[in-house]
Every structure is written in C-alpha cells, then in structure tokens.
Give the backbone structure.
Amino acid sequence: MSGYNESAYKEARDSSIALPCPFERGLLSLCATCCKSRKLLLAEREAISCTEQSANERCIDFHRALHANARFALHIDPQQPWPFGKEIRAQCGGIGGLKEMLGFSASDDSGSDIASIVAAGIERYGSIAAFPYSEIMRAIVHYEPRKRRDGK
C-alpha cells in the first residue's frame, strides 16, 4: 500500500476549486476546450476549475440535461453512479452533438469552446431545456472515446 490519502486529496481539491467544472472529464480527455476553464495541478493530478459563475451555472444545467436524457440511451440504472466511459460519452458526445446542431463543422476549432457552444445554443433555442436532445442523443450514442495508446 502506497500510503496515499485519497480523502486528503479530495479535501485539498475541494478547497482549491471554488467552481468545479461539470465537463472536467471532457476537457481532460481533450474532446473540447473552454475559455472559462482553469487547469490546476494537485497531487500530480490535473483538475479543472471554472472562472465564471454564470457560465458554470449554464454548463451545470446542460450537464444535468444531458444526464437526464442520456440515461435511457446509454442503458444506465438511475440508482447507480455514472461509469467513467459513459460519462465521457455523455460529455464529449453531448458537446459534439450540440456543436453539430449549431452548424459548426467537426474540424472547426472555433466551435470547440464549451462555454461558447452552450451560449450559442441558448441564443438559438432560447433555453437549455429547448435544445434538440433527440439529435444530441444520437451523437452521444455514436461517440467513440479514443482508444488507449498502450494497445489495451
């Protein structure tokens, strides 16, 4: 046993991050960027913090809506926590799906910013609740996380 104290790490993380980013896993997996994010290094791990309260609230609302809509599509038991792989699919596929609905091309780096994508979605559809979730769910279901480099 290494003597690593996970609860001490979580305590340090919670004290260092005022606004946790709901899309942290997507940002760390490099499927998107965010102009409102700030990367922190804690105990040799990367963490993402948000720098703007209003953007964070919009992203939290979008993240919750993705989870609510994707549970059925990804066959997730509502009583169980989200598995890591399905969380990545929901975040990266959801961001990509909304990006596609807004007319950004897949290779358009200017449309990779989560805060901008959500704001553009609100501008077009009026609210996060009005986003075209049936189309976004297709992108989530078809999203394939990148393969591990070590061949496993």
Notes: Strands lie at 37-42, 45-50. Residues 7-142 form one domain.
